[in-house]
Amino acid sequence: MKFPTVFSLFLIYGLLIPAANGQSRISGRVVDKQDRPIVGANVYLADTYDGTSSDTDGNFNFQTAETSNKELIVTYLGFSEFRQEIPLPQDSTYLQIVLQEDAFELASVVITAGTFDAGEEGKREVLKPLDIVTTAGATADIAGVLNTLPGTTTVGESGRLFVRGGEGYETKTFIDGLQVMNFYSPAAPNTPSRSRFLPFMFSGTSFSTGGYSAEYGQALSSALILQSKFLAPQERTDISLMSVGIDAATTQVWEEASLSAKGQYTNLDPYLGLIDQQLDWIDAPTSWEGSVAYRKKISSSGILKLFGNFNRSAFSLNRTDLLDPELKTQTSITNNYGYLNAMVQEVIGNDWTLKGGFSYTQNRENIGLNTARVKEREQGLHSKLVFSRQLSGNAAVKFGTEYFNRSFLQDYRQPDQFSNRYQFTEQLGALFAESDIYLSDKLLARVGLRSEYVALSRDLHLAPRLSLAYKTTENSQFSAAFGHFRQTVQNEWLMRSPDLAQEQAEHYILNYQITAGKRTFRIEAYHKRYRDLIKYTTGADQLPQQLSNGGSGYARGVDLFWRDNRTFRNVDYWVSYSYLDTERDYRNYPSAATPHFAARHNFSVVYKHFITGLKSQIGLTYTYGSGRPYHDPNRPGFMEERTPAYRDLSANLSYLFRDNIILHLSASNVLGREQIFGYEYAARPDENGSYPGRAIRPPAPRFLFAGIFITFSPDAVLNQLPNL
């Protein structure tokens, strides 16, 4: 790993931040006409280098050594420029500044094509941060709630995000702009995995189902962009007693810093002893997890964020052989995972904002298959530096650079027989630039360009991105997006053939959205074209041969979304529907076909009701997916069979037992419907010439959860309801 890259990034940061050594202090607050704080407004003295930007509360504070009167200038995209002369020198000056939206009302036009936002600052969000943790059936898993949105397909045997005809690996996750490798925890074969990170860590979530910003790369289909929280507002200690384990968390707060730490132990053995399982567990899944988050204000406009996550998990089970039911394969997995994220943000000069940082991931996995042993190790470094500036009242620009360094090692050993060892190191450098330009009072254009160089394949390419938004009424608009997207092929292929080129996709998106009176309606059509997908043949040993980038495919469809938390008192609900038409000719497919993870129709309804008198919140989620294709080698044709339709009704209940104590209950598939995710078949026929197979089902008909969540805080009224 090239750690000098990381240190040089922070060295650049240190050289760019000017020292504040003035004698006059200028402070104040920037708000809009509704008295809402404006975050990130540029505040500076004309013809000087003295200035700052407003913080998350709209406040600003800086010093100057100027000895004559100067004009104070405040600018923010979509608002008219503010100017006022300040008499200098003097000890201190405080100003309450109200910015007026300019004549074009530019701030009301935003890019919505392909993006669902859940944040604390967005004007057109269609999700709230709490939705991530209060949706029935999602079990407080980020991917779980996003799978209730249009554009996704529920793949129950995986648990990951499959977006608009794309595989699970085509969605990448970023925390504060930095990529997260191995976002999901390991799971037993054909059982769902969960994301490693808890939703309460994040203040904002942007889920892009296509056409995302030029700042982000290495994702063919989708980008999940998570923004971590800033300073913690209050000290607290949380204890959680759950049917699957226990955890404890504490937060300490100082004047300009906060520190949060969490430890969690999970052991499914008691739960599995109560609920019958279809899997033959030897050692039930267990895990130890710890995380630490440190936040520090480094100036009136700057912040430093540090986050670390560490996890160890293990399990083992027996799997029955398809050809010989008396023969069992003992499968075990032990996983050790570590993730570190460091980010700094600051205003430099009068107009520029700098954001830079790095993330480091290490994932070690030991896999046992009877006597065979497989050791895998993956580690990666991602560093990024981004500069942004509001050029005027109707334009903004952002550009930057990033560097990826990733290594992978797989060591396979079969005692007294043979061993294989694969490894590679991949380096990737990227430059990107993007500008938001208001062409009129109703039309916004976002123009971007991304360039990447991949050292392994010696591949240099350009990826253009373009988005448009046109405001039709005060509450509605059309958006469109186009872009080229590339992604390095999966480890299992790259380790065998390091010179493979990146896979490619082109996105075309058209969107209409109206948001008014706590109601949102959205319809979006898309077309996606794939090129350079992995293609190979298989021999008698079922191993891939003749690897190439000869695959291709397409995905097209329509997504619908409706949300309403106004019509019914204390009720919030949303409805999603997706139509998907997709085919691929990739991997060892003999011809183009719909892949096994794609369902033509997906539908979900999410309902939440807060019952004030009972101090309770109930939630219901209904999910439907039409049958997915699978290949039965005993029948003619390829991928011609279909699974039964997927139907699931999940429910949860949160009861406020005391101001600081919550009782939470949840259950998936409460009706106990049989769910079949697909079928798996033996690699060779039996003595009768048939290929034995079996259905892929969940480990149990339902998953039940119970927990008591206790919070200790100075005022004794905080609780964990926002996290449930």
Note down, in words, how this protein is organized.
- It comes from Flavilitoribacter nigricans (strain ATCC 23147 / DSM 23189 / NBRC 102662 / NCIMB 1420 / SS-2).
- The protein folds into 2 domains: 3-103, Sandwich (Immunoglobulin-like); 115-723, TonB-dependent receptor, beta-barrel domain (Maltoporin, Chain A), CATH 2.40.170.20.
- The model is unreliable at 1-22, 103-108 and 119-125 (pLDDT under 50).
- 5% of the residues lie in helices and 55% in strands.
- It is built from 5 helices and 38 strands.
- It is globular.
How many beta-strand elements? 38
In whole angstroms, the N-to-C terminal distance is: 39 Å
* Assigned CATH architecture of the largest domain: Beta Barrel
Helix and strand content put the structural class at mainly beta
Counting DSSP H or I runs of 4 or more residues, the number of helices is 5
Family: Belongs to the TonB-dependent receptor family.
InterPro entries: Beta-barrel_TonB_sf, CarboxyPept-like_regulatory, Plug_dom, TonB-dep_rcpt-like
Domain TonB-dependent receptor plug: 138-218
Pfam families: CarbopepD_reg_2, Plug
Key terms for this structure?
single chain, 724 residues, mainly beta, Immunoglobulin-like, Maltoporin, Chain A, 38 strands, globular, disordered N terminus, transmembrane beta strand
